[in-house]
Amino acid sequence: MKVGLIGLGKMGLNLGQNLMDHNHSVVAFDLNTAAVEDMKSKGAEGAASIKELVSKLETPRIVWIMVPHSVVDSVLDELKPLLSKGDIVIEAGNSHYKESIERYNQMKEFGVSYLDVGTSGGMEGARNGACYMVGGDQEAWDIVEPIFKDTAVENGYLYAGKSGSGHFLKMVHNGVEYGFMAAIGEGFEVLEKSDFDFDYEKVARVWNNGSVIRSWLMELTEKAFAKDANLDEIKGIMQSSGEGKWTVETALDLQTATPVIALSLLMRYRSLENDTFTGKVVAALRNEFGGHAVVKN
Amino acid sequence: MKVGLIGLGKMGLNLGQNLMDHNHSVVAFDLNTAAVEDMKSKGAEGAASIKELVSKLETPRIVWIMVPHSVVDSVLDELKPLLSKGDIVIEAGNSHYKESIERYNQMKEFGVSYLDVGTSGGMEGARNGACYMVGGDQEAWDIVEPIFKDTAVENGYLYAGKSGSGHFLKMVHNGVEYGFMAAIGEGFEVLEKSDFDFDYEKVARVWNNGSVIRSWLMELTEKAFAKDANLDEIKGIMQSSGEGKWTVETALDLQTATPVIALSLLMRYRSLENDTFTGKVVAALRNEFGGHAVVKN
Amino acid sequence: MKVGLIGLGKMGLNLGQNLMDHNHSVVAFDLNTAAVEDMKSKGAEGAASIKELVSKLETPRIVWIMVPHSVVDSVLDELKPLLSKGDIVIEAGNSHYKESIERYNQMKEFGVSYLDVGTSGGMEGARNGACYMVGGDQEAWDIVEPIFKDTAVENGYLYAGKSGSGHFLKMVHNGVEYGFMAAIGEGFEVLEKSDFDFDYEKVARVWNNGSVIRSWLMELTEKAFAKDANLDEIKGIMQSSGEGKWTVETALDLQTATPVIALSLLMRYRSLENDTFTGKVVAALRNEFGGHAVVKN
Amino acid sequence: MKVGLIGLGKMGLNLGQNLMDHNHSVVAFDLNTAAVEDMKSKGAEGAASIKELVSKLETPRIVWIMVPHSVVDSVLDELKPLLSKGDIVIEAGNSHYKESIERYNQMKEFGVSYLDVGTSGGMEGARNGACYMVGGDQEAWDIVEPIFKDTAVENGYLYAGKSGSGHFLKMVHNGVEYGFMAAIGEGFEVLEKSDFDFDYEKVARVWNNGSVIRSWLMELTEKAFAKDANLDEIKGIMQSSGEGKWTVETALDLQTATPVIALSLLMRYRSLENDTFTGKVVAALRNEFGGHAVVKN
């Protein structure tokens, strides 16, 4: 198939190559012209604008958007007047499922199908076999399924149902991921505080071979410790990019008790602080009622 | 009544005065002779040793121990050979209720009654009206009730039942206290992170007058902010002295879900760290799978 | 002062009487005509419509809205064409502070001042002395301060600053309240699971006299146990009316770690369920890897 | 090697076969004689008592204990007089690491080496390739390493260091496992509460192929949903067998903030209750201050 690929960042570049490995042709666009040249050197057709990209596709056009979720709307605004009834837009970034549903409805007015695709597996997955969760109209899905099948790992894609379900699944996936990562981190922190003398790389390796918690994240834990045996070189600042927060907000809306996912998120926020106002208040109160000493700033 | 008071620290000194205010006579002992002199200057009889203290009491002797829980056993070891059947030992520090039950059983072998007393209200309470939770034998309680009635605030004492129940109640009281303090702290942290410009002392005052959360701890919050409007001068390091941990351990033993008390404790531990191994692991993992930058140490 | 009072539910009726006790005159309206008659019997002027209510006020008109937050907008829609430059609207229900800011901006277009007022203290407070947290323009506040001063308990009102700050403070107040209540509940649950035999009413009383956790909520705990010694008659279903959820959502937006408030909310949601899907999944997994028996439905 | 295997339950039987598959000879004992016969039919030598078992081993004897942790001490009491200097005891059940250290010290008095071995991977692992974490003396380890190497999966064993480190690692492993399981459960609960219509087996499959959270537990999740699509047949009661609790207790002793592991445990306890006293107290309080209706029992 011929796919118009908008967005050639870390994920887009890898996906483009993956598509071409499987004999799909790619028309590539990015505001960063160097990235376009890079894709051209690997066999893609380049485009200098979204308009040119669309003009190089055949009906029904398939446009795959792989951009930060904050710029999806501006890409869609450009696309809308250029697309025709029957065209299919695939948005495979990390958008909020509610926004995806809104975009689906907007595009539907133009007769354009809109698929929301959660993509997991990181850069390596995008290159060699990703994991896709797809929401949107079944008819559009039936047309594009082959490109997902080809670029996913075996059994690594799911048409999950109506619009929004793809990004919803990916959001929750990331919520679970937060929980896994926090559990692994806490486990190693207990090891680290103990008076045993563990070799963390070896611990991650044994936990990854035959144990109940063997997992890709444990493999990555092993890799990380292989590079820096005690993680001395990095700070424990846990950034987050939104999906964990969305999961917790959604859980609140659905009145669902998700303490593990919620705490994994709150501890990320805690890690952004050197000191907390909560701590100051509690320390001050202990001083007030019990005369307990406070540590002065 | 005549009371032998062992332990003249912050709590003991105040309690001794409180007892004498209510026409009880006090025989006071502490390893710190200056404290004994201080009590003498306020009207107490002094003792140079536990032996002397015991010799100055009348049968049935009433010995009130107000020492750190780590030294209770050594005090009891000294007392055991000196006391007789019918004497009453009151241990009013922050001991673990299980230890109190063991001590009760030990003293029972000598025919000595042992009351475990949880004391709340801080130094000011000890001086002017404390809050007591008492466990042990009813017969011993009936004898000493007057001294509790006199030194407590109105309705501020409770004979809670069999041995251990006093310190158990106090332990759980402190667990609840941890939760209150954390909730107050978190509330003010949300205020502090907002883009409103609150005067925290005034907020504590209004929350303390007519609101649902009016409480002594909110009064103390107001006082703390009155001294240091934004708590700029103190660090948010939240020490703990044991009862909160015991409450959580007890909850685990009883298979009781106490997430609020547990988290108020865990966040205290978190506040003791500048950085965490959990954070390092999570940051390293995010780098491994997503290429997210880590902050270097 | 003359106040137009819209909304004569549990809170409005009590507030109306409170206003009249302090020599303010009240024009009262509610869709429920019986409630209007009730207020009239207590000395208020009645109104058969919002239009009539407005017509009975003097410039600058003071309209106090005390309705569920879901109907505030429809009340404002009716009010807008009826009010004039300089009039003051007081909204003293439990609205989200962001909505209050939007309403403030809408009313400002008409030259009408809009004060967002968080009200605490329950029905009894509304009747005899409430607690108010007020946001909005200082000039409007200066005009109406006397009616707040008169109907609040001493020190029980605070002009907190710009629009939204009143409801923000009240929201966070309720978040803290969730934490207090959960901490109290957890404490009593530990008592209840222990093998001691506590009299909960007496425990609440002693904890409320001289202890660190003495508070209005502990007074209410005592009252509740006085009515039903072991709370045998009620189910532990913890409903919630929104402010706790808003507090957590706001904390997430501000990247603030509020585990205690968050967990007190999540456990309320958990209490709405007889069984959970989380539990089913975990039980099924234990069966898969360890052969642990599951309980059949 | 020749191994005396005490304990022929689910784990022991599988391990015995695994040992024999790798040309080790097994002398088997269990109080359940049918299990001994079973092992004999598979090629093991049987023993009618621990004494007989020991008598059939060659010096240095290797005794592998695979019994519930509550009966380890009674097995050791029988073994002590029968073993000689240089013999090696392997205890591969789920004992608390502190007990293992005590047992190590006890056995050391007899000159017997004691290895504490955490075993993961479930019954299937025991049969075809387990995961072992081993603590104890290096010299003893060097002797028995071959039998661990043969019965583990590749890279599935680790000599972790001094006595206790094996069971410590296994304990923390299980703590992490609790976190993983809770995160998976919470994720599916969010899916289940949403208004999408997910096929959970397919979701587990796609999350297990190429995604960041691919893991053995996700494989088991897929299997569980394959058997019962919505887990309608089982109750969400989450039992626990101790290691998660030990992990949290250890974290408390080490002053380590492990909120995710702690909450995964507390929610297991919550799942054992139909109703909670916490809930009753909170519901009663809401009724007291706000007149909110309670649900009657």
UniProtKB/TrEMBL annotation, chains A, B, C, D:
Cross-referenced SUPFAM superfamilies: 6-phosphogluconate dehydrogenase C-terminal domain-like, NAD(P)-binding Rossmann-fold domains
The 6-phosphogluconate dehydrogenase C-terminal domain, residue ranges: 166-293
GO function terms (MF aspect): NADP binding; phosphogluconate dehydrogenase (decarboxylating) activity
Biological processes annotated in GO: D-gluconate metabolic process; pentose-phosphate shunt
KW Oxidoreductase (keyword) present: yes
Pfam families for this protein: 6PGD, NAD_binding_2
Keywords: Gluconate utilization, Oxidoreductase
Family of the protein in this entry: Belongs to the 6-phosphogluconate dehydrogenase family.
Name of the featured protein: 6-phosphogluconate dehydrogenase (Decarboxylating)
Organism per entry: Paenibacillus rhizosphaerae
